[in-house]
Amino acid sequence: MIRVIVIDDDPFVCVSLETILNAQDDMEVVAKGTSGPEAVALYDEHVPDVLLMDIQMAGGDGLSAAEQIIAKHAGARVVFLTTFADDDYIVRALHLGAKGYLIKQNVTDIAPAVRAVAAGQNVLGDEVVGHIANGPEASVDVAAHFAKLGLTEREVEVVELVAQGLDNAEIAAALYMGEGTVRNHVSGILQKLQLKNRTQIAVMYYRIGQ
Fold first, then answer.
1. Structural domain tally of the chain?
2. Neighbour-count burial for 160-193, b at 16+ CB within 10 Å, e otherwise
3. Domain residues for 73?
4. Does any domain span residue 137?
5. How does pLDDT run across 111-159, given as a tens digit for each residue?
6. Kindly report the CA angle at 183 between 93 and 67, in degrees rounded to 5?
7. Which of 33, 67, 75, 116 has the fewest CB atoms within 10 Å distance of its CB?
8. Beta-carbon neighbour count of residue 126 at 10 Å?
9. Region 12-31 average pLDDT
10. Helices (H), the chain
11. Dihedral of CA 185/164/53/60: which sign?
């Protein structure tokens, strides 16, 4: 059973999310809250599998709460569910280690996203991907920029494929290398760029190309 905490300063949204998630055979909402400080306290109390939280809340914002939670609980899985597909919010959320960023309008995406994050994946809503990606035509030489950051030519190729959403097996096939080698490259890239996950690599790639 996937244990979830829901945090939103709109009580109606909280109840709606609780109804949606509890209707799933494999999910249970163990607590609800309406502010960032409540999120921190409830997380400490319940240590859920997934924290589903808004960003802008009157009683304390979700980004600050997530930062505190992730600093204290290294394995915390935080998914932001918000109406704001704002670049700064997205980048800050992913940089501090959030596992997902979804837009509230897409209600049908919520349960599958929670399930994916609980399984160890990262999730971005379609609108979010649209915000961070400007398409293939970049205003700067992205490869050259990553090379200046210390990445090898092969690592830059891996970055480009990660940004396209390919998994390790697909990258291995595209670059004619073993999956273990791909994993090693991804680990090296994360270390050199001081990032936490593949989603952050993709965000950085598209931000540089803007």
1. 2
2. bbbbeebebeebbeebebeeebbeebbebbeeeb
3. 2-132
4. no
5. 999 998 999 887 876 555 555 544 444 434 778 888 888 999 999 999 9
6. 20
7. 75
8. 12
9. 95
10. 11-22, 36-46, 62-72, 87-95, 110-118, 126-132, 142-148, 153-163, 168-175, 179-193, 198-208
11. positive
Give yes or no: residues 100 and 72 share one domain. yes
- The residues, ordered by sequence, that sit 6+ positions from 120 with a Cβ below 8 Å of its Cβ are none
- Contact between residue 111 and residue 24 where contact means Cβ atoms under 8 Å apart: yes
**Residue 33: phi, psi to the nearest 5?**
-150, 170
Taking the CA of residue 24 as centre, how many other CA atoms within 13 Å lie in the half-sphere pointing to its CB? 20
| CATH, residue 189 | 1.10.10.10
Instruction: Name the one residue in this structure whose structure tokens are 């931000």.
Output: 207
Residues 12 and 113 grouped into a single domain? yes
Q: How many CB atoms lie within 10 A of CB 144?
A: 10
Query: What is the Cα 182 distance to its own chain's centre?
Result: 21
